[in-house]
Specification:
Structural class of chain B: alpha+beta
Order of helices and strands of chain B: HEHE
Oligomer: heterodimer
Structural class of chain A: alpha+beta
Strand order of the largest sheet of chain A: 5-7-8-10-9
Number of strands of chain B: 2
Largest sheet of chain A: 5 strands, mixed
Shape of chain A: elongated
Helix content of chain B: 25-40%
Distance between the termini of chain A: 63 Å
Shape of chain B: flat
Mean pLDDT of chain A: 87
Radius of gyration of chain B: 11 Å
Mean pLDDT of chain B: 80
Distance between the termini of chain B: 23 Å
Number of helices of chain B: 2
Radius of gyration of chain A: 29 Å
């Protein structure tokens, strides 16, 4: 650097190097030195020790990571605490109350619902951190949508948050090569996200399947999961696929981020759009070559 | 005349989640007349 400055007369600034000895970080700059008449006299090499700044930055990053981990763990603990408490209470009462029909009815619905909720929490967390094994098979995408609707209608037996689910289909089979289990999960999380962000008793979600021409040629299948009742602030929607941001808010809200991973894992794409009257997720899948 | 309704204390359980609401109702049911609601503004059941 010094030679270059001597030769060209130009300053070279702020090159960072780390010394092998003690791992010190240095910032190195060179400047030309000129006489009063502007004639070059030489060059200087300036070292600035950045070690303390680098250590501070590392410490700051570690603190931020710890804070993030704390928030994520607190959120997870919060999400699983309520179902565990209610399951535990029902289990403790089962001996003395089993003969009470009211108890048996609520045991069946509440415990089943809360166990399912816990399973979903762990599935989402697993979906965020692992790819899992994919079992690709060629299916009509309508069958996957039908399975999702059936599963959601079963869950929707609890009257606290009824969900109106409308499905629009293509007239012909739309064959895709995917892992049906992963796509089912992805679609379920999107539907529940829209339902959760709708006013209670008014949740309405539509799912429509349509064939479409791709820009690059060829054809694909679009699955539009939309809702006119769901309301999500624009700033929240902006980070809806960021799992690190969303996991701190709610494990229901982390659903779309997991869905995106799952959809991409089966070769598709997932986008979100806020229309004038409808918020919708758009799943795009390539058609299977027959 | 039934004395149960008049002698039991009344408790209103309010929680937005079904699980905690119903588990608390089951826990208190033998000793209190329980009403539940899922939100402050909702009707009791």
């Amino acid at each position: 650097m010094l030679f270059d400055t001597l030769k060209t007369g130009r300053a070279a600034g702020r090159h960072e190097i780390q010394l092998a000895l003690r791992g010190l970080w240095l910032e190195v700059s060179t400047y030309p030195v000129r006489g009063e008449d502007g004639a070059p006299l030489g060059a200087v090499l300036v070292f600035e020790d950045l070690t303390a700044q680098k250590e501070l930055l590392t410490q700051k990053r570690q603190v931020e990571q710890t804070q993030l981990l704390t928030r994520v763990v607190a959120r997870i603990a919060d999400e699983i605490k309520n179902p565990l408490v209610s399951i535990n209470t029902f289990i403790e009462l089962i001996g003395e109350r089993y003969d009470d029909p009211d108890f048996r009815r609520h045991f069946s619905s509440v415990v089943r619902r809360d166990v399912r909720r816990l399973v979903e929490v762990f599935e989402k967390l697993a979906g965020l951190v692992t790819e899992g094994e994919l079992n690709f098979t060629t299916v009509d995408v309508h069958t996957v949508v039908d399975d999702v609707v059936t599963a959601i209608e079963l869950v929707d037996e609890v009257p606290a948050r009824p969900l109106q689910l409308d499905v629009t289909r293509e007239t012909t089979p739309q064959v895709v090569k995917i892992d049906p289990a992963q796509l089912r999960k992805a679609l379920s999380y999107l539907i529940w996200y829209l339902a959760h962000n709708s006013p209670p008793d008014q949740a309405r979600v539509s799912v429509s399947v349509a064939r479409h021409a791709e820009r690059e040629g060829g054809e694909g299948v679009r699955i539009l999961v939309g809702s006119r009742t769901a309301v999500v602030p624009a700033e929240k929607l902006h980070r809806v696929f960021d799992p690190v941001q969303m996991v701190q808010e709610s494990l229901i809200d982390v659903g779309p981020a997991v869905s995106q991973r799952l959809v991409e894992a089966v070769g598709g794409q997932l986008a979100v759009r806020q229309g004038r009257h409808e918020l919708h997720f758009l799943v795009t899948l390539p058609l299977a070559s027959l | 005349m039934s004395t149960t309704a008049t002698t039991l204390g009344r408790v209103l359980v309010v929680d937005d989640e079904l699980g905690p609401r119903e588990s608390l109702r089951m826990l208190l049911k033998p000793s209190y007349a329980i009403q539940t609601a899922c939100a402050g503004s909702s009707r009791t059941s």
